[in-house]
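Input (structure):
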């Protein structure tokens, strides 16, 4: 079978939605069986000299199409209906709505007489009144449950609190235009091309980067980093030159969460598991690159990070730093703010001055001169 006959760019944005939450155990087993059959194709050995970027991309495309073909044939699908109210199905509103529609249809067929003495008009108004009453009750019940969820999350777990708040926030419409480097795109095709240009510029090394520095200083830093890199590469080879094991991959798959957005290939976490703000939407800098990353890419990143943690543990290194609050389990903005507030209180009681510096560099890890950063870390005795 030619698995590339349906390339990943054939899966359109407004396609059928896979209803992973509604599939039963038999459908999941069926999906796994189909995956096993379709993934039965040969690959080159890892030490083969024929493996290159094009070959890896070819294998990735095969895997992407395999999971799509298997899922589309086994998992139930539906279509996203934005107009449905979240409380509609759980409160039997369909019954009262259909009663109202049927009464209206009967009234229309009997001459549409707007008179309270007309029994059909009276029945239609009664059914409409009853439907609206149940709808308002359902709305109030849903809102009370929503606020109860938020209150409970705020009292128990700050992370859960923010997840509930984000879940209940009103969805915003997507951007209809994009502005970058003096160009404005308004239709889907031009917006996609402008996104491509933006990320291409963002991740392409700047050929004129050294023009911003003194040349002797630039060459000195570059040479030091090259020397340091050659010294530290050998001890790390034992951790990173070994191929990934099935157990490693499986452990990282268990950390994936359901219900997350897919990448550009429309492969979501469920494919693997089962086998906001007010920024300017027209500005590419308002978006994070992580939302565009493939699920397979995220899984690879998780596995690499797991190996780094194992390596640092073996070297008896503390990672991350105990004072780091971001990207650390059971930490977040609240503990950081509490620490800052306590520092302010201590200095206020002692009537001393306190200087606080806040630094936020836009796209810092994408645009920063990495050799210069690594040298500063080395000079400050930070292991990397």
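Output (sequence):
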């Amino acid at each position: 079978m030619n698995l590339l006959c349906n390339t990943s760019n054939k899966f359109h944005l407004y396609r059928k939605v896979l209803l992973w939450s509604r599939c039963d155990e038999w459908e999941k087993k069926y999906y796994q069986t189909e995956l096993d059959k379709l993934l039965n194709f040969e690959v080159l050995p890892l030490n083969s000299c024929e493996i290159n970027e094009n070959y890896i991309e070819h294998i990735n495309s095969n895997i992407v199409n395999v999971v799509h073909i298997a899922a589309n044939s086994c998992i139930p699908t539906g279509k996203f209906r934005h107009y449905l109210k979240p409380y509609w199905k759980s409160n039997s509103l369909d019954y009262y709505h259909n009663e109202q529609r049927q009464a209206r249809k009967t009234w229309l067929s009997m001459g549409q007489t707007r008179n309270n003495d007309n029994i059909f008009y009276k029945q239609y108004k009664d059914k409409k009144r009853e439907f609206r009453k149940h709808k308002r009750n359902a709305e109030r019940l849903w809102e009370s449950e929503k606020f109860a969820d938020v209150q409970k999350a705020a009292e128990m777990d700050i992370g859960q609190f923010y997840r509930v708040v984000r879940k209940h926030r009103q969805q915003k419409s997507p951007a209809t235009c994009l502005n970058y480097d003096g160009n404005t795109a308004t239709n889907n095709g031009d917006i996609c091309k402008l996104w491509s240009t933006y990320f291409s510029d963002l991740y392409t090394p700047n050929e004129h980067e050294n023009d911003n520095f003194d040349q002797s200083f630039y060459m000195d830093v570059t040479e030091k980093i090259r020397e340091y890199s050659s010294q530290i590469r050998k001890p790390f080879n034992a951790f990173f030159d070994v191929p990934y094991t099935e157990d490693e991959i499986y452990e990282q798959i268990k950390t994936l969460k359901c219900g997350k957005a897919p990448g550009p290939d429309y492969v979501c976490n469920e494919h693997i598991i089962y086998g906001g703000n007010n920024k300017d939407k027209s500005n590419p800098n308002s978006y994070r690159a992580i939302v565009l990353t493939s699920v397979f890419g995220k899984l690879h990143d998780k596995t690499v990070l797991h190996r780094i943690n194992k390596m640092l543990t073996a070297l008896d290194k503390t990672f991350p730093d105990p004072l780091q609050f971001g990207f650390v389990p059971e930490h977040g903005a609240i503990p950081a703010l509490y620490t800052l507030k306590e520092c302010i209180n201590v200095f206020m009681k002692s009537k001393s001055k306190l200087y606080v510096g806040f630094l936020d560099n836009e796209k810092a890890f994408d645009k920063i001169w990495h050799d210069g950063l690594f040298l500063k870390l080395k000079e400050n005795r930070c292991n990397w």
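Notes: The radius of gyration is 29 Å. Confidence is low (pLDDT under 50) at residues 1-14.
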